Structure to design on (454 residues):
């Protein structure tokens, strides 16, 4: 099991999976840019909306993932297995509700979020089709999280590869009318996203059946345990609030960008793709560190938990700084792949230097924040996030970016300050060792645990 939960063994498949998910979004952006910059703005805006709504089911999925790794570390296999079933059932219900709402009210939602009137017809199409598949997104998120936290990071990676291949082929077909498919533009891109996610969900569910030592059977879908669900929510609700705080703060910032104009919105969408690529390996290390730290915490190996955190942070800082330098040097040329509008390229290029400052702070915050979450200190991370995101990242962004006219640069300065403030507070918390209070004493005897007792 130690070999299975090795930091590098965990992180490289996560990196491949995230890279391919990033490529999914980048291919969307690149291909949609061939339709129009307005279509790109709609996709970027809608994806922020979807990210905000996913927090409603990641409350359960994230809490379940951490708890599964902890239970496996404590040798409570049946508890981990029961938690996985609970998570899938709970997120299925949430995802179904979101799908119904987004299919029924795309125009109302777009208007409420200040979408420019010229973009509303495109928003109707994209939000209703892709949003109608939120049930699939909910299941994909939960199944991937469960499988990944058992130490099997390769299965979600394989799924991501298949999903990307299908998505790229269908995107090309629908946008350019290839392979006998109709030339449906943004509608085709939305349908391509929906089909690729459906196939990925089916594959992940098959893998989920064999995720634990004891195979899942149809009667297992009835599994429920009030005590374990309470444990999931105790860890999950602060995680959910934290994630919701971040995605809704980003959504509000996109509203500010709407106020600045369509070109600023498109430039931010393109830069978001470059930044995501820059941070991929760092994010992979942070997720791998979280899984390993949760497993070690379940075993009661506290010294190794700390070693994992700082080893992950050192490696993460090196890779994100190198990647940020590459983006800084070649950023203008990379932006040229997305658009030939000189004003949009100039707006994006003006942010490349700030990205060099942003990425190390993001790694500090993400790496230590995820590790604190892994050991159950989710409420502290939630509290500092609520304060910093809404006061610094959103509040001061509005003052500098909109009121004082600094535009995108003012908004980026506040994003940088937010990352470093949260990162510094997480570092202080980790070094204080307050997270170690009430530590799990170590593994239980085989066959014990809440699920076994039930």
């Amino acid at each position: 099991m130690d070999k299975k939960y090795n930091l590098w063994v965990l992180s490289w498949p996560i990196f491949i999976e995230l890279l391919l998910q990033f490529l999914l979004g980048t291919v969307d952006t690149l291909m949609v840019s061939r339709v129009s910059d307005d279509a790109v703005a709609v996709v970027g805006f809608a994806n922020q909306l979807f990210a905000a709504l996913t927090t409603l089911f990641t409350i359960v999925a994230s809490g379940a993932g951490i708890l599964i790794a902890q239970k496996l570390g404590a040798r409570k296999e049946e508890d981990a297995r029961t938690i996985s079933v609970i998570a899938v059932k709970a997120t299925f219900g949430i995802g179904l509700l979101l799908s119904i709402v987004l299919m029924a009210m795309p125009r109302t939602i777009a208007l409420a979020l200040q979408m420019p009137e010229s973009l509303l017809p495109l928003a109707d199409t994209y939000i209703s089709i892709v949003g109608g598949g939120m049930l699939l997104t909910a299941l994909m998120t939960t199944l991937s999280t469960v499988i990944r936290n058992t130490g099997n990071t390769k299965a979600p990676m394989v799924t991501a590869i298949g999903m990307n291949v299908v998505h790229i082929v269908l995107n090309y077909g629908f946008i350019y009318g290839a392979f006998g498919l109709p030339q449906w533009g943004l509608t085709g891109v939305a349908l391509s996203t929906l089909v690729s996610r459906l196939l990925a969900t089916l594959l992940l569910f098959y893998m989920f059946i064999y995720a634990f030592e004891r195979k899942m059977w149809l009667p297992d879908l009835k599994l429920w345990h009030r005590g374990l669900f309470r444990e999931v929510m105790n860890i999950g609700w602060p995680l959910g609030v934290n994630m919701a705080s971040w995605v809704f703060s980003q959504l509000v910032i996109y509203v500010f960008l709407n106020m600045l104009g369509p070109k600023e919105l498109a430039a931010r969408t393109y830069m978001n793709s470059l930044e995501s690529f820059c941070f991929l390996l760092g994010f992979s290390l942070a997720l791998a560190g979280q899984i390993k730290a949760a497993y070690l915490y379940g075993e009661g190996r506290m010294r190794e938990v700390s070693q994992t955190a700082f080893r992950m942070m050192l490696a993460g800082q090196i890779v994100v700084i190198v990647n940020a330098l590459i983006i800084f040097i070649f950023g203008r040329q990379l932006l040229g792949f997305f658009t030939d509008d000189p004003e949009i390229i100039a707006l994006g290029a003006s942010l490349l230097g700030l990205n060099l400052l942003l990425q190390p702070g993001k790694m500090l915050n993400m790496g230590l924040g995820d590790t604190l979450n892994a050991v159950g200190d989710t409420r502290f991370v939630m509290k500092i996030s609520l304060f910093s995101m809404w006061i610094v990242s959103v509040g001061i962004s509005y003052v500098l970016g909109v009121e004082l006219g600094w535009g995108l640069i003012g908004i980026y300065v506040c994003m940088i300050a937010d990352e470093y403030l949260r990162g510094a507070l997480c570092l202080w918390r980790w070094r204080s060792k307050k997270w170690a209070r009430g530590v799990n004493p170590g593994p239980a005897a085989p066959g014990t645990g809440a699920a076994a007792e039930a």
